[in-house]
Structure formats: structure tokens, C-alpha cells
Amino acid sequence: MKTMLLLGAAIAPLAFAMPALAQSGPAADPQGPVSSLEEVIVTGEPVMRNRTDDVVPTLSYDLEYFQRFEPLTAGDALKRVPSVAFLSDILESDGVRIRGLDSAYTQILINGERVPGANLDRSFFVDRIPAELIERVEVVRSSSANRSGDALAGAVNIVLRDALSLDGGYLRLGALNFPDSDAGAWGGTYGAVWGGQAGPGRLLVGGNIQDRRNPKAKYSQRFDEPGGDLDNTEVQTDVRDGTDYSANASYIVDLAGGELSLDGVFVRTDRVQLEDSLEYAGGVETAANLETINANPLDIRTDNWSLNGRYRREMLGGETTVKLGFASIDDAQFERETEFDVADEEIGDEITDTQITDDELQAALEHQIDLGAMTLEFGVQYGEKTRDTRILFAEGEADNETAFRLLDPTEFDDAEAVPGGISTIEETRIDPYVMLSGENGPLKWEAGLRYETTDVALTDETVDPADRVNEQDYGLFLPSASLRFRLSDSDRVILSAARTVRRPNFDFISPALLEGEYGDNDFLGNPDLEPETAWGADLGFERRLGRRGVVGINLFYRDVTDLIELTNTGDYSDEAIGNAEDARDEALADGDTPAEAQAAYEAELTSFVLTAENVGDGQVWGVEFDLSTPLDFIGMPDTGVFLNYSWLDSSVDDFMGERRFNSQAEYVFNAGFTHDIPSWGAAFGATYRKQGDAEGRIVGEEVVTTYGADLEVFVEKRVARNIVVRLTGSNLLDSSKDEVFDKFDTIQDQIDRDYDEHELETETAGPVYQAVMRVAF
Predict the structure, then answer these.
(1) Which of 137, 337, 666, 757 could form a disulfide with 743 if both were Cys (CB 3.0 to 4.6 A apart)?
(2) Mean of the pLDDT values across residues 620-641?
(3) In which element (H, E) is residue 589 found?
(4) What's the rounded Cα separation, in Å, for the pair 421 and 388?
(5) Please, which pLDDT band fits residue 670 given cuts at 50, 70 and 90?
(6) Angle formed at CA 431 by CA 98 and CA 564, multiple of 5 degrees
């Protein structure tokens, strides 16, 4: 409690865990000769999307494709990639939503290997991976038997630099300016990478420190219904301020007739988030109409590290690979929310202390044999996850207060675990697979079968002993096949089909009862939930334009079964029963008849206990267009352009009828150009991004999210043979995020459109400027 007081005095208390880089896989195979640093820093020509030789439809982007815009994180880089949407706050790019679907449907891979996420839906936030660690990013649209099948929407493979990536070193020194911050706050970004021969092998080491600041302004208007009376307004500031630290190392050496690669990554996120707000009655924003004062500070401390090894050598008539890796997330949160009700002269103060650790051990044994006309690959992959959660909550209140203040520790109740707040999840996966691949003239193909077995044990210390331990196990066959047919030297067709899976959220399988989780409705998890599965297909056409350009179009479809949705158990919530009993007792005390008292009782039974169930099917489909080319064909070889547009749609039935998958963007559009001026040793360029509206509907709430357009520009100048200076500007259009919320007390109210509240919220942020110098040596 002493710590609470010290931090509370500054209205900056502590921590909401944010997932970050948890695991990197084995070192990626080199795609060519070791790069020189001069080429990495200043390319001297437009950089286009790679045209990969993969059979599975894959879009590949080297770091140089993004680097000129100086992205801070992998999420910033992915904003230019086809079909990648985000539902983040302005200037945040955390949960990747391929094809607009919830981030739990997208598999995030590091060096081709699965990574654990700290979120309840198993998703992994990419905004904690510094862009400086990246060698390239791949968007894998379909699935293969030798990869985890958790990729219903697709997969993003973030390939980190390894010991074969660089020959030499470079320094990165930069300054960031946030003009919308107090006094126009400044930050720094510093990094160094070196790669070269070290003893019998090759070594790469790197480190990076970068400041992160995101000052935003929010404004909310709340009505009793659409077009109705304005009940109140809220003026809010939201400042996220922190520093990311990262270090990585890779060593590759020939050993005993094979190749041994070792790599390690450490990422720390140290971040404070301050949200302060004032609410005014009737929308009149004067001191006389001030209703509430709210302060909600959080401190974020997330440590992620991983160690991985891979040994590969020719043996047993082919090539054998052994992999072993361990990753850990340590996510600490401390959050305080203090609210002063001016009219009632009451202060409510809440503290939530959260600690999540997620350790994952992975191993694999794989073998590949050349059979002449085809290649046989088979193996088994093993994963063991242990996730421990500890969430404690304490609250206090004080009456007859005339001014905002933070409560003293003695005014708080004793801290207790929240429902589901003390739990352990142990998950074991053993996934064997077999795959055949081959090439015959213009045809290249692969086909395989994967069998994923999952054993899950969830121990919840907050429920009755009889319900404390829940176990589940299941196995899934996941076939996949892809072929690529070369129509000519420039044209090719790619066809893929695969079965994929999405496992249930951890909170959906918890037996804890969460009161008021959805409006006035409680929520009770369902330990018997089955995973969602989907059959999907992709059909694409790709054409080479000149020497380096490429244009493509892709059609995709997913048929989802065992879809998980919220349902009504039919049981009344604890609050409804309590209100009903109070109403009956009051009616009897007032002299009403038993029948009248029973009617008063039943009138209060308006909220229920909800749960999650496998309810049926859903479909997802869309069209993706992608163009990336230099303008050689019109005599402008030093100018490169890119344009991609994804039209996205889906269908699912819920308690109100048909809708799209929740929060799926209607489209994603990106366009940009770069222009090099070789005689000046300079270049400049810009990118433009727009994401379509996203609608979501759950029990008790509906929301429509709209994003404004985003514009980024850069200009760079080589000031010496090995030095380049680059200026970039982001969010130059002062993009906004606008949300419309419709809120309801009960399911029947939602069907009848009997509103509890209609809210309009706007969030804005200003531009961010960077000045960066890169020095090669």
C-alpha cells in the first residue's frame, strides 16, 4: 500500500500487461549472399515486394521495403501490407487482423515458429517487436502441413536477422518529436547491429532503445437514444509514454557435418499510460455542470525472452533437423482508477494488480528425403505451455468529499482475487505431419496432412473445489494442398486449400462467473467448448511487370464450423435476482397483494447468465489486389509505386440475425511511391492508408468504428559514402478514430431497440516526426 500511495500521489500508478515478443524460432535460411551494410542503409533504387518461389501463396517484404519510413515496430511496418487491418487506438498497431478478422484468427510466427501471446484469445501483439530486429515480413495466405494450423485468416511470419544477414555493422541514432505533447515532447531512438565472422562461425549481435509516446485526445457524447437528449459529455486525455529495449544475437556454425544455429531475443516494454477525464451534465462544459473527475493511470512492464537452437545435417538418406526452443512472457500490471462524483460528494477508488507469466517449451524432429520426382517431409512438433495468472482487486470509497483526492491505503478493503483471477493453464500439443512436394515443368505443388493433438488442464483457485480443475483433449486432422502453375515467363496461377483451426479463448473455458461482464448480464465460461475449424481456399493470379514489378489478384473463401458465440443459459443474473427480491419485499411492505408482489418480482428479472457455445457456421470471403512496380515502362526507373486494395466480407448468424464477423473492416487500401535522385544521393516518398468501417455486435453492445486516412512521408540524403540522414513524418492528416456505441441492459432490450445509452466517441492524435542518421562500418 505504500507503493500505491507514492505512485498515486503523482496520479501515475501502475501496470496493464501488454504482450510482446515471446519467442523467436530457428534462424531463417539465407535467401542469398550476405548483405553489405551500404545496400541495407541506402538502396539507390526503388524497393519492391518480393516475388517468392513458395507454392503456398505468400507475399514477402524485405526490411528495405519499409525502412525508409522508419517504422518503430513490426506493427508500423505491417500497415502497408495487403489485407492487414488493425482495431487499435490512433498511432497504435498491435493486434494484426488479416482479412479484417479478429486477431485470434491470425497466426503470428517468428522465424516460422509459433509464438505464445499474453492475451486471453491467444493473440500476439506485434507492436512490441522493434522494426530493427526484422529482416523481412511474410504474409502467408494459406496453410501447410509443416506449420501450426492456427491460421484461419492467414499467418504473418516475421523473420528476424540472423548471423547470415549482415557483413559489417551500423549505428542508428535518431530523435522523435511529438508536437501535440506538452511542450512538444522529444524522444530518442538508438540502435546498433554487427554481423561477421567469429571463430569458426558467423555471429550477429544487436541492440535497440527507442522512446514511444502517443498523446491522444478523446471526446464523448452520450445520449439516451439516437437523436435523443444529450445526457452528458466526457473530455479525456490519454497519454502513453514509455521506452522499448531489445537485444538479439545469432550464431551459425558448421558442426559435425551439419549446421548448428543458436539465437536469442530479449524485449522489454516499460510504459506508463495516463487517462484523465471530466464528465459534464447535459453537454454544458462548465464548472457548474461538472459531474465526475476520473484519473486512470497504468504502468506497464513486460519482459519477453527466448532461446532457440536448431541442428541440421544430412543423414538417413536425407536431411534431418532438430529444433529446441524456450520462450517466456512476464507481464506485470498495476492499475488504479479513481472517480470523484461531484454531486454526490463520493470518491470511489479501485486498484487491480495483475501478474501473468506464460512459459512455452517447443521442440521438433523433422526429416526430408529426395525421392527423385518429389520430396517427402515428415516430422513431429511438440509444445508445452504453462500459463499462471494472478489478479488481485481492492476498492475503497469515501463520502462527504468536496474535492478530488486519492484514497489512503487504510480506506481500502482487503485485496481479493477476482473471479478467475488465480489460475493455471497447462497445455500440451503433439503434432505429427507428413508432406509431399514436387515440381514438373510449369507445375509446382505440395500436399500434406497434419494431426494436431491438444491436452488442456485449467485449474481455477477462485471457484468451488468441485469445479476447480477442468480438463479437455481433442485431436484434429488438418489436410492442406497448394499448387502453382506457370502460364508463361511472366504469369502464374496459385491455388491453395487447407483446413485450419482456432482454439477457444482462455476466459471462455474458465468456470468462473463474471458479474456484469456484458451489460447487466453475467458470464459463465464453458470448459467443454470445441475449437472452431474452417475449410478454406485461395485462388490467385500473378504477373511480373518488367524486371522487378509484380501485380496480383487473389480470391479467398473460408467456411467456419463450430463457431463460438455468446448464448443465454436462461438463468437470471445475481443482480436480477437480488433486485427482484428487493422489489417483492418492498411491494409486500407497502401492502400489495401477493400477486402484485410477484409481478414486481418478475418485472426485475431482466438480465441473465450468458455463456459461450459452439453455435453453427460462418463464412468469410473477399478479393485482394496488389501492385508493386518501378515505372520503367514509362521511362521512370527511379520511381516505384505500390497499391493494394482488399474488399472483405463475411456472414454469421447470432441472436439478432445475420451480421458480419465482429469488427471486420469492409476494406483496406494502401498506396504509395518512392523516388530516387541518384545524382543527388537523395530520395523521397509517401504512403497513404485508409481502412473501411468495422461493425461489431455482442450481447448488450453494438459498435461501429471508423478510421480517418493516414499519410506518411520521408526524405533522405546520403551525406557520405556510408552515412544517410532520413526525415520522416507520420499521421500527417491528424487521423481520427470515431466510434458509435449502442448500449442495452438486456437481450430483449437490444432486440426491441430500447436503449440504455447511445454514445459517440472521437479519438484524435497529432503527427510524429523522426530525424534518423544511419552510419555503416
Answers:
(1) 757
(2) 92
(3) helix 574-589
(4) 10
(5) very high
(6) 45
Local structure of residue 637 (DSSP, 8 states)? E
CA angle 454, 456, 461 (to 5 degrees): 175
CA 712 to centroid of chain Cα atoms: 22
Average pLDDT on 51-68 reads: 88
pLDDT digits (tens, 9 = 90+) for 388-408: 999 999 999 999 999 999 999
Q: Is the pLDDT of residue 23 over 70?
A: no
Per-residue model confidence (pLDDT) at position 515: 85
Q: Which of 156, 136, 138 is nearest to 62 (CA)?
A: 136
Sort 362 into a burial class: Cβ within 10 Å, 0-12 / 13-18 / 19+.
buried
Task: Name the least confident of 177-186, 525-534, 708-717.
Answer: 177-186
Q: Which is nearest to 558 in space by CA: 142, 107, 86, 121?
A: 142
Per-residue pLDDT tens over the stretch 423-461: 999 999 999 999 999 999 999 999 999 999 999 999 999
Distance of CA 506 to the CA centre of its chain: 16
CB neighbour list of residue 322: distance below 8 Å, 6 or more residues apart: 310, 311, 312, 364, 365, 366
Model pLDDT, residue 6: 31
Burial string for 497-516 (b: 16+ CB within 10 Å, else e) reads bbbbbbbbbbbbbbbbbbee
Asked whether the predicted pLDDT for residue 25 surpasses 60, the reply is no
Distance of CA 196 to the CA centre of its chain: 34
Q: How many CB atoms lie within 10 A of CB 355?
A: 16
| Radius of gyration of the chain from its Cα atoms, rounded to whole angstroms | 28
Decide: pTM greater than 0.90: no
Contacts of residue 690, Cβ cutoff 8 Å, sequence gap at least 6? 668, 669, 707, 709, 710
H-run or E-run covering 662: none
For the CA atoms of 64, 69, 73, 75, the dihedral, rounded to the nearest 10 degrees, stands at: -90
3-state SS of 193-261? EEEEEECCEEEEEEEEEEEEEEEEEEEEEEECCCCCCEEEEEEEEEEEEEEEEEEEEEEEEEECCEEEE
Handedness of CA 524, 527, 529, 531 (dihedral sign): positive
Residue of 27, 29, 28 lying closest to 262 (CA atoms): 27
